[in-house]
Amino acid sequence: MRCSSSFLYNVYTLMSVCPSCPAGMSPPGSFCPWAYGLGLLLVLLALLTGGCATSENATSSPEEPRAPRALLAPADSTVRTVQLYRGEDERALPVLSMQGGAPLTLEFDLLVDDGRPLSVYFIHADRTWRRDLTPSQYMQSFASDRLLDYRFSRSTEVPYVHYTYEFPNDSIGFTVSGNYIVRVTEQGNRDAVLFERPFYVSEQEAAGDLELEALRQPGTARAPLRPTLRFTPPDDLQGNPYGYTVCFARDVMLEAPRCSTRPLLNAQPQLGFELDREAAFAPEIPALELDLSNLRTSIRIARVDRQRRPPRVVLDPDRARVLEGEPAAVGGPSVIRDALRGVSDGELSGDYVDVQFALVPPDAVPVQGAVRLNGPVAPEGVPMQWDAQAEHYTATLRIKQGLHAYRYETTDAGLQRVLQRASLRYARQYLTFVYYRDARVGTDRLLQVQTARPPR
């Protein structure tokens, strides 16, 4: 006889921690005999009414192939080159540890002539990015802070103001782990949003072993990878195998992980979580590298027009059948300071340029579906237009000097197959996020974030 994991978890929560036990019987949050008896009654009713299936006909609790994306406020048109990373490494993931260590750094530009103080707010969300708690429930001190560190660009064709902010700090601290959103607004006006970005606060209390199994399939050069995580829950959660969700992501796709809520119980107290075969990560079309640290002709840059303001950089067209660019070394957000090491204060001296991308489809003819430029240079995606004279798709973006990554995506099945055949590779890294739905705090705690490299 077997019940669904979600049913058992709900009953367990009721039986073990009762927030509303009748007055005088037990204090909130402690063991409640009344709730324990009610939980046993619910299990008995489930057995009698078929709410729990026998082992012969039980079906697995459903997987969540993809978790919802973080719904962020649209960015203001003046906002450019938002970076959010841990410590001093621009490539580092925006994961803050409650165990201590390096803070997160937020950097961005406003394409304006005059700088001004701004405000920053912090919003907690559950694992589905539903904004759930009030600031008093997760902030250690203040709910917002002032953003006063801003400097003007130096001798650039396009003037801008560069902002830098580090947290936690003396004014900002977090008491609850989980998914978070940082919101930057006009000073003192929470609703005058300039942009939002997601980040994570992790307890780092459930380290485990992440394995990547190659699911071999006939006729495929690279098999899909199915991740499996095995970990031991922290001491305060021992004895309850339910309420966990483990999400797996790859490279920069942190906002669209694939999740499992079904624990493997064959090695308790250690728990295991894996994706269904259908949800395994297939090899992907990699992001391509764009190096704008030096504005001069190169293997990737066909020409630079410095007579325009700002300068115009025309890239050699990418050909769908053979994507000749190298896989992006950044593997994530744009890198500015490290890419401009030979330039004093590269975050202030780096110029903005108009970059023209081009993709040549098979036989140099337009396809039926839409073609978009995507990746860190265009997080929300930019439509590409067909240029009949040049016989390729094109799009132009204003990008800051540095090291960037981009990729193409399309709704045309034929072009998609061509792009995949030309360049499929494994992602550079895979990540796991271990969540626990804790009734005591009313949200999903983030117990652990860790990474693993794929097989070569």
TrEMBL record:
UniProt-listed Pfam families: T9SS_plug_1st
InterPro entries assigned: T9SS_Plug_N
Top-level division of the source organism's lineage: Bacteria
Domain Type 9 secretion system plug protein N-terminal: 79-202
Protein name: DUF5103 domain-containing protein
Organism of derivation: Longimonas halophila
